[in-house]
Amino acid sequence: MMEELAKGALKFGVALSPQQLAQFEVYYRKLETWNQRVNLTSIQGYREVQVGHFLDSLSICLALRDGPWGLGLEQAPPQEQGTFSLIDVGTGAGLPALPLKIAFPHLRVTLVDSVAKKTAFLTHLLAALGLNDVSVKTERAETLARHPDHRESYDLAVSRAVASLPTLLELSLPFLRVGGVMVAPKKGAVAAEVARAGRALTLLGGRVHHVTELTLAGEKRALVVVAKVSPVPEAYPRRPGLPKKRPL
Ligand code: SAM
Questions:
Q1: What is the DSSP letter of 209?
Q2: 4: CA distance to ligand 1 center in Å?
Q3: What is the pLDDT of residue 66?
Q4: Is the Cβ–Cβ distance between 169 and 206 less than 8 Å?
């Protein structure tokens, strides 16, 4: 069961238990069934989902393991693991946050997507997986980031395949506490995208801490790690739609 995932995760230093692999199996089955009615993923097939979705999501832990943040994305015994809050902006079918939650159950997770059909899938899936400490929000990130329960409060923000870096920074940095980090997985060459994000970083109080490069199934990937160094000014994020339409 989920052999490809189990092998690949071990290479990242993550040993998945039979119970965790069974949760990934359920995730795969639910994705496959729901995808016939709701457009959740273009990646299909047992092997493809294991690599393109599950391993790709887990690779995020490679960017944080050696950092100064102590976010606990390593497999310490449960009593030594702190609780960290993670928000996934534009999570779609729960990616990348849910594979991270399955592998690192101590995370407290918030999944945000504006499309109700996708969040209905997530609510169904969470019940099937029996995961605790995961909340699902059907909202635009621009709106949720204005809510005091969510603004400046998370340790870690992730977001995959949602927008280019300048837009992503405006959607994600408001959720982080100062000292928190954002990880944006990117495909292909990333240097130009990082260069274009200079103005957004300055305005929003972010600093690119490092970029971790890796190869997954022969494809080059990069994980851009942004540290939040100062609070996001009140003006951001701008009203829904603007961060994408007119990136900073
Ligand atoms: N992160 C998932 C993944 O990697 O498979 C989904 C990627 S999908 C291409 C982009 C998702 O972001 C969509 O589900 C869309 O509804 C959501 N999205 C885009 N902009 C958003 C916003 N401003 N607020 C909330 N969700 C947003």
A1: E
A2: 26
A3: 63
A4: yes
For ligand 1, say whether the CB of 167 is within 6 Å of any of its atoms: no
Say if residues 215 and 221 touch (Cβ distance below 8 Å). yes
CB 181 within 8 A of CB 227: yes
- Residue 159 alpha carbon to ligand 1 centre in Å: 8
Predicted confidence at residue 83, as pLDDT, reads: 78
Q: Is 166 in the pocket of ligand 1 (CB under 6 A)?
A: no
Q: How much is the pTM?
A: 0.95
Does residue 121 contact residue 37 with C-beta atoms inside 8 Å?
no
Q: Give the chain's end-to-end CA distance (angstroms, integer).
A: 45
Indicate the number of domains in the chain: 1
d(CA 60, CA 58): 5
Q: Which of 162, 242, 246 for a ligand 1 pocket mutation test, highest count of atoms within 8 Å of Cβ?
A: 162
User: Mean pLDDT over all residues of the chain?
Assistant: 92
Summarize the confidence of residues 198-206 as an average pLDDT. Answer: 97
| 188 confidence band (pLDDT: 50, 70, 90) | confident
The tokens of 219 are what? Answer: 């494809």
For the CA of 113, the closest atom of ligand 1 is 26
Residue 77 belongs to what domain range? Answer: 3-245
CATH number at residue 148: 3.40.50.150
To test the ligand 1 pocket, which listed residue (113, 221, 223, 239) has its Cβ within 8 A of the most ligand atoms?
Answer: 113
Q: Which residue has the tokens 């801490």?
A: 209
Nearest to 218 by CA among 245, 246, 195, 188: 188
From CA 155, how far away is CA 138, in angstroms rounded?
A: 21
- Residue 82 banded pLDDT, cuts 50, 70, 90: low
